[in-house]
Specification:
Blueprint: E1 7-11, E2 18-19, E3 26-28, H1 55-64, E4 68-71, E5 95-97, E6 102-104, H2 110-120, E7 123-128, H3 135-146, H4 152-159, E8 170-173, H5 188-205, E9 210-213, H6 226-235, E10 241-248, H7 262-283, E11 290-298, E12 313-314, H8 325-340, E13 345-351, E14 360-362, E15 368-370, H9 374-384, E16 388-389, E17 392-395, E18 398-399, E19 410-411, E20 413-420, E21 425-432, E22 439-444, E23 452-460, E24 479-480, E25 486-488, E26 491-496, E27 500-507
The protein binds alpha-L-arabinofuranose (AHR).
């Protein structure tokens, strides 16, 4: 190993960037591939409960630390008729889903999903169809879900076995409506008008609903920021959040630039915040719009991925991404970015939860197991939840990374720190993004002698393409650090091996 010049992090646990919102640890269940059928729902599986939900998947969802789950899409929602998925199963229609080229048998729908959320301890985040449908269908769904009773649709829910209202607070106004791939794709103005009418109608029903406006799908879209500006100008007072999505391609073995990609996520977040604040000033509002990063992950975006299944198959194994150790490190870095900006990013959903670009794989009739990306999510959710992100000053070596357009070289060290006042535990998450060189690290905490090290865990990509599998589920897991951090004068010091991610926990 050939060490780089040292990096230094100075931490300020008495000061705050923002409290970490519970909703930062969300995920996403779409009617796509084997996420619903064969993922969360597999009646007949040995681990299935009376509702057909796999308990092994629920247990892993809880272990992952998922707090909120977006449903039912994604692209799927833009041609979805929610009425198809409620009522007696034998009467539900079989429909063609244009988004994914499959047959949707509608054996699973809104009520089943809400029951699953309750079992998994997660809040539902529901998306309405603004592709092929509009204001009336969104209102109908809100009435069906949230009205206690005494109206046709709320009584229909009661007749379907759900006497209590679902009380869903968080709603997405469509999905990626700026994308030409979206069923019912809209121009910025068409979407802005429809979203504004829908938001107002939903709030006439219940002024406390929290609404998410569709922002630009990602920062390479031709209408990036113009789409967001126009949407916000029409809907500023009627929505709480604007959405962002981002996927980075999986590792092909070339690590030189791979781990630096999340810099683009930081940039995307900053640009959307600037646009929100520009519109706030323009419409002279007192309110700040929050960001909902409600799809993010590592994934080689390929929409229909046609190999391996026939068009109009039912629940084929689509987007069954298999993650490597290197993917898990980039994934951790994306979570750092969400944490760093959690003063404005107040909700986020890892896309998706099971089988489809997912941290959990569930074998049909067999075991459920953890992909590599499961581990950084679970560790960050466990140690950052209920904490405050604290300021840090860091310095150290940099690299010029082709294709990352920051106007300056990138720091090799990527880190974020969280203080939990209830437990007195300070957690530092740190990634050495250098592909081949170790990074000496000094950590400065005020009142050095008052802190003791609880844990130093490492997730390594020394074998970048190593993966977990059903037969070898623990090939890539967090392990005790190779170079455990040590007190060193008034600081702490260690060595971060190349391509390695660290969780360092100190207690006062
Ligand atoms: O998560 C997979 C797909 O990616 C979603 O359906 C869509 O919203 C995005 O493009």
């Amino acid at each position: 190993m050939n060490p780089l010049p040292p990096a230094t992090i100075e931490l300020f646990p008495a000061r705050s960037v923002a409290t970490v919102p519970d909703r930062l640890f969300g995920s996403f269940v779409e009617h796509l591939g084997r996420c619903v059928y064969g993922g969360i729902y597999e009646p007949g599986h040995p681990a299935a409960d009376a509702n057909g939900h796999r308990r092994d998947v629920i247990d892993l969802t809880r272990e992952l630390g998922v707090t909120v789950v977006r449903y039912p899409g994604g692209n799927f929602v833009s041609a979805y008729r929610w009425e198809d998925g409620v009522g007696p199963r034998e009467k539900r229609p079989r429909r063609l889903d244009p988004a994914w080229g499959t047959v949707e048998a509608n054996q699973y729908g809104t009520n089943e999903f809400i029951s699953w959320c309750r079992a998994a301890g997660a809040e539902p985040m529901m998306a309405v169809n603004l592709g092929t449908r509009g204001v009336q269908e969104a209102l109908d769904l809100v009435e069906y879900c949230n009205h206690p009773g005494g109206s046709t649709l709320s009584d229909l829910r009661r007749a379907h076995g759900h006497a209590e209202p679902h009380n869903i607070r968080l709603w997405c106004l469509g999905n990626e409506m700026d994308g030409t791939w979206q069923t019912g794709h809209k121009t910025p103005l068409e979407y802005a008008r429809l979203a504004s009418e829908t938001a107002r109608a939903m709030r006439q029903f219940d002024s406390k609903l929290e609404l998410v406006l569709c922002g630009s799908t990602h920062s390479e879209m031709p209408t990036f920021l113009e789409w967001d500006r126009i949407g916000l100008e029409h809907c500023y007072e009627d929505v709480d959040f604007i959405s962002l999505h981002r996927y980075f391609g999986r590792c092909n073995g070339d690590l030189r630039t791979f781990f630096y990609q999340a810099e683009e996520m930081d940039r995307q977040i900053r640009a959307v915040i600037a646009t929100c604040d520009h519109v706030q000033a323009k419409v002279r509002s007192k309110k700040k719009i929050l960001l909902s990063f409600d799809e993010w992950n590592v994934w080689d975006v390929g929409f229909c991925n046609p190999e391996g299944y026939q068009r109009w198959d039912e629940a084929p194994d689509q987007l069954a991404e298999h993650y490597s150790a290197a993917d898990a490190l980039l994934f951790a870095s994306m979570m750092h970015s969400l944490l760093r900006h959690c003063d404005r990013v107040r909700a986020a959903c890892l896309a998706q939860l099971v089988n489809v670009i997912a941290p959990i794989r569930a074998e049909s009739g067999g075991a459920a197991w953890r992909q590599t990306i499961f581990h950084p999510f679970a560790l960050i959710a466990r140690h950052a939840r209920s904490g405050r992100v604290i300021p840090q000053y860091s310095s150290g070596p940099t690299e010029q990374i082709p294709g990352i357009n920051l106007g300056q070289p990138c720091a090799v060290l990527d880190s974020v720190a969280v203080m939990n006042d209830a437990t007195g535990i300070l957690t530092l998450f740190a990634l050495n993004r250098h592909a081949s060189d170790g990074l000496p690290l000094n950590v400065k905490i005020p009142n050095h002698a008052g802190w003791r090290l609880l844990e130093h865990t490492e997730l390594s990509a020394s074998e970048p393409l190593a993966k977990n599998s059903a037969d070898h589920p623990d090939e890539v897991i967090p392990r005790p650090a190779r170079f455990r951090i040590q007190p060193d004068g008034g600081n702490w010091s260690t060595q971060l091996p190349p391509a390695s991610w660290h969780v360092l926990r100190f207690q006062t």
